[in-house]
Amino acid sequence: MKSITIKGSERESVGKKATKALRNAGKVPCVVYGGEKPLHFSADELAFKNLVYTPNAHTVKVDLDKGEKIKAVMQDIQFHPVTDRILHIDFYQLFDDKEVTMDIPVRLQGNSPGVRNGGRLLFRNRKLTITALPDNLPDFFDVDINSLKIGDNILVESLLSDDFTILQPDSTVVVQVKTARAAIEVEEEGEEGLEEGEEGAEATEGAGETAAEGNEKPAEGGAE
Q1: Which residue in 115, 110, 189 sits closest to 149, CA to CA?
Q2: Per CATH, domain 3-94 is 3.90.1150.10
Q3: In sequence order, which ranges of 118-172 are alpha helices (DSSP H)?
Q4: CA distance 9 to 119
Q5: Span 137-153, mean pLDDT?
Q6: Which superfamily does 101-178 belong to?
Q7: Which one of 3, 28, 54, 100 is most buried, by most CB atoms within 10 A?
Q8: CA distances, 139 to each of 50, 105, 145, 146, 188 (Å)
Q9: How far, CA to CA in Å, does 50 sit from each of 1, 53, 92?
């Protein structure tokens, strides 16, 4: 998984007054959990732009001014209710031998024939939650929808891997194509087409026999 470097400074004071002063200076107070003790640091708000305002998932390398570097993932973020400025971010420290839980975005690849025929594409789960070792975290789940017809779906079970564990049930629908009012299903050529042709021929013959019988009735009535 791609990593973003955040350059920050370790915080000596974590009181309300010091925190307010940091925010007024355009900095974001942060905490890294998961180590021997919580690590408090701050960084410029602009440094988090590529981490926060993106649909992509990233790990973080916190580069502190004292030379210490910490690998982590973002766990929680707080925004100001009016200005939407970042108020606080919690991180969780990564260790090579310890699994971490993370939301991974899903990307759809290709074009669904079901949609081209008038069906409705429903993207049920745009992110999937997994647990994995840091080195096994994927950037995306790429889902191929080139063969997705009307009535078809793709489940979590088709995305399973030995490198990670998906926390959603295997039967969870990721994406599906449902019938719309104007949907027109394209029938595949083959045996199905032949069977329909035979049924149509039988129906035509049956209609002919019915018409013949109908023509005979008036004749019988006239003889009487």
Answers
A1: 115
A2: no
A3: none
A4: 53
A5: 96
A6: Ribosomal protein L25, C-terminal domain (2.170.120.20)
A7: 28
A8: 14, 8, 19, 21, 37
A9: 14, 6, 18
